[in-house]
Design a protein that fits this description.
Shape: elongated
Radius of gyration: 42 Å
Helix content: 55-70%
Distance between the termini: 120 Å
Structural class: alpha+beta
Number of helices: 4
Strand content: 5-15%
Number of domains: 2
Strand order of the largest sheet: 1-2
Order of helices and strands: HHHEEH
C-alpha cells in the first residue's frame, strides 16, 4: 500500500512518525523527572532542616565552650577524672597483679613456702593459683 503513495507523502508520514516518537520520549522523560523531584523533595527539605538545627546547636555548644575556659589545666584534668570515676561505677574495680601478689606474700605464714603464683585475669573474674609446700595442715589454715 505504501508503494502506491507519492514520495512527498511518504516523507511527510516518516517526519510525522519521528515527531511523535520524539514527543513521546520527551513526555516520558518529563514525567520521570517530575516523579523523581516529587520523591526527593521531602528528603531534601528534611535534610536542610536537620542541617540548620545542627548548625544552631553547634553555635550554642561553641559559645558554652568558649565561655567555660578553665584557668588551670590541672583543674580540668581532675574534673574529667572525677567524671570518669562516676561513669566507671563499682563494676570496674581495678585489680593490679602486683597488689594481689604483695598481699599474698605479706599474709602468708612463715611455715609456708610458695613455689609459684599464677595470676589469670579473664574478662569476667580474676583467678590466682598458688603452688607451694607447707610444713603442716594447721599452717595452711592460718
Amino acid at each position: 500500500m505504501s508503494n502506491l503513495l507519492p514520495l512527498e507523502t511518504k516523507n511527510s508520514i516518516k517526519k510525522e512518525y519521528h515527531l511523535r516518537v520524539v514527543a513521546t520520549v520527551l513526555f516520558l522523560l518529563g514525567a520521570i523527572l517530575l516523579v523523581s523531584v516529587a520523591w526527593l523533595a521531602p528528603v531534601y527539605i528534611l535534610s536542610v532542616n536537620k542541617y540548620d538545627v545542627t548548625q544552631s546547636e553547634l553555635v550554642v555548644v561553641q559559645a558554652e565552650i568558649s565561655n567555660k575556659q578553665p584557668d588551670n589545666p590541672r583543674e580540668t584534668i581532675n574534673d574529667i577524672n572525677s567524671k570518669l570515676e562516676i561513669l566507671k561505677g563499682d563494676d570496674f574495680t581495678k585489680h593490679y597483679a602486683y597488689d594481689i601478689v604483695k598481699d599474698i606474700v605479706e599474709q602468708k605464714n612463715k611455715e609456708i613456702e610458695i613455689e609459684s603464683i599464677i595470676y589469670d585475669k579473664s574478662t569476667t573474674d580474676i583467678k590466682v593459683l598458688l603452688r607451694g609446700n607447707a610444713l603442716s595442715r594447721e599452717s595452711l589454715s592460718s
